[in-house]
Amino acid sequence: MARIAYQVIFFALFLVFLINPNLAGAASPPVLPDTLPSLGTVKIAPNKHYKSQGLHTFIFGQHWRNVWTTPIEVPILDIRKFAGGLEPERKGGGFQTQSLRLKGKNGIVYKFRSVDKDPLKMMPEALQKSIVADVLQDQISSYHPLSTVLVKPFTRALGVLYSEATLCVLPNDPEILGEFNAQFGGMLGTIEIHPDEAENHSDSFAGADKVLGTHKLYEKLISDNDERVDGEAYLKARLLDLFLGDWDRHYDQWRWAGYKNGKKRIWQPIPRDRDQAFARFDGVFPWVETQVVPQMNNFSESYPGIWFLTWSGRRVDRKCLTAIDKKTWKRVAKEVQAVLTDSLIHEAIQTLPTSLQNEEAAWLEKALKSRRDHLLEAADEMYRIYAAYVDIDGSDKDDYLEIVRLENGSVAVRIYKMDKKEWEKKGKPWYSRVFDPDYTEEIRVYLHGDDDKTVISGDATESIVVRVIGGEGNDQFYDQSYVYCCGFFRSSLTYFYDSDPNTYFKSGANTEINREILSTPPDLVEKYERTPRDYGYELWYSVDNLWATYNSDFGLMLGHGARLERYKFRQSPYAYQMSIKGGYAFGSEKYELSYNADIRSFISGTSLRVEAQTTGLAMLNFYGYGNKSKINEARDEDELYETESQKTTVSTKLIIPASPYTVAFVGCDYKHLNIHFEPTLNPDDHEQTYLNLNRPKGVYENQNISLYAGFSIDTRAKNVLSSSNEEHLSFEWRAPSSPATKTAACSGYFLSLEGRYFPNALKNDIDFSKLKLDLGTYIPLPLKLSRLALRFGGEKIWGPYPFYEAAYLGGQNTLRGFRLQRYAGDAEIHAGCELRLYLSKFKFLVPISFGPLAFSETGRVFLEGERHADAWHTSVGGGLWFSFVDPSYTISISLGRTVSEASGLNTTAAYLTTGFTF
């Protein structure tokens, strides 16, 4: 339940929140006049409603509230004189910023952007009138309202191409602004030249002959090897991002200006939207938020982890920084640091209005100087991140790829234009870099279209893994290299990928060839932004890994865990995932620890699961065998029938997907049950438990191994009524949804069948086997979100078995209301139905749908030799369910009552769970 609450609220809150002067043909950044034609000035606070103190500030953060609530003197823009007169064209489409495009009589397009933000349109409609919306709006105070103005002196000094913004207020002018006057008239914002996308335009931004968005730039770079990004200019811009603490630099935060230089066109970066520069996430709530979404970095005097500070921009970085080696990187970092002088930082602070020249301004100046002093260390960490796994793009022209493995372990990569007649390189390389094994683990080169040739040569004692991925066309691959370190069990260091039947391969001693055919992404966003991660690892251990549950058998249980995922090339969604978690049940005073691994790289297209667990909650009770087992009224039930045991299991399972919703599996388990009982048998001792008095088979034979196989079909995930369910429709097979999400389904079904064999081994002195079935379906009802859930299950055992392997009934998973493991036998069957009705919706922090539920469950066990035991054990109950925002985030509370307890002592049990019981 705790995990669901964190995911709902923090996901919503998360939503809130260079040019090279020596380049021939490059233009200077466009500069607005420092003094705009105005209709006078006005004193206005960016947003006085962000003022707070005391507990609110402690919980939600001080942020930049003092800046937001301090009145500043701002010019009122004379839109009739500026740029010869402005005419509004249309509203912008930003997620939070309100913007208006205006065209001047000089032919230039300008953009007015609001200083304050409106996060409502980023939120689901169900949240827009909730307290979450109020909190989200309040958290806008984490932005510095004048960040775009503060950035201006730094971009000018570094020569970074940037659309400079000037602070102003739009006038109330219905005649000029027309339909936009109601929204924008009197609004505080900034005016800037809009770097619009344009293939060819005489009035293009900064004199560029073309201006493109990021994805169109990628397509342009691939289409022609004469199209290049100025990597050093981009690196300058990114180092400035680190310095400013601007963590939100995704692909749409950039435009690209192209300048012809002979046959080549060089592309300069144009960073946009500096709203997240200097963002502060202090306070309890924002701190927790940054634990869940770690790329939301708090601006301070020191740098946070560079991995997360650069995370939002990682995809653009990995495209545009591949040609820069360590020496060049360090030189550019020193150049940037040298420009960021004390006087420049002071000049930037002085651009703030007089009323803001206070202690916070002094702190900001001090923080910027400290970050400048440590910029080289931050730059070095950034280099290590992007040097580890490098993706290099060829082009759709004929390319000649030359890779040389050097004796010291380094690898030289050069890409030339190719003479198609001779299939040889020509001219100088248009890409060249030497990779150091101290920094680089893998190099991937994508050759794309047309006919290409790859030649890998050189001998070395150790080297870097190289992957070359061919594209359309008749390609040739030659591996003439040799790496001595691999020994007798030689591993591959060169990988060639090409599915074209006309491709020619010549392998070497360390070569592996892959002809797998991959599907083509449907659009540019899928192609460049939603590709599975294929490098590095990720570790989650924050508050998002908390979990909680409750039932009458073991009381409240709280736990925490951590999860590690390792990513590798073409291993989706990961190469392996490992998790460890632990919890403590306060009612039974017992603990549980578990380790789980999901290995996808063992056999392609399968999942190898390795699990280990030790728990005191697996075998809580033993009441004896059969349907007629009685409860002794003279003894305390908890003391008499409780078992003191600790079960330890180690399991391996191979899962083989047959379709998006069907899998087969085979596996092997080891189990050890450590049972605590008195060494002597004394029936008159009232401290003796039922288990100790009867000592069934298994008290001493407490170890076994088992082999099992089965299959399961589960169509529930795709039928959850959730706005974010699209991920379940693709066959990525990533354990597509949690059990809590699946049980919230409104239609669909699940079926699981498993057979298990226990051989005569370890302390199991005779073999036995069992078969287990679980089946359920969901029938939608006419009333919104209402459904009838049905389930049926059973288990059958053949051969003598230890008591802890019996077929049990009772507890949350079979018969609610009955104590856990109330009945035991050679076999069992159980069935249940649960009516889940939608009643209404209300708002408390978030929109909450809720309704009643009612259930009836029945079942019985079978025991060889038991006579006149045809009684069925039935329970009934009801409760409430609550869905937060949508049914994917559901909790249910229920009470179950037995109506046919064999002993006549009917019991009641309570349950609180994420999702539903089934």
TrEMBL record:
This protein's GO CC annotations: outer membrane
Compartments, as annotated in UniProt: Membrane
InterPro entries linked: Bac_surfAg_D15
Domain annotation Bacterial surface antigen (D15): ranges: 582-880
Keyword GTP-binding attached: no
Principal location class: membrane
Keyword Manganese assigned: no
Keywords for this protein: Membrane
Family annotation (Pfam families): Omp85
Source organism, top-level taxon: Bacteria
Protein name: Bacterial surface antigen (D15) domain-containing protein
Organism: Chloroherpeton thalassium (strain ATCC 35110 / GB-78)
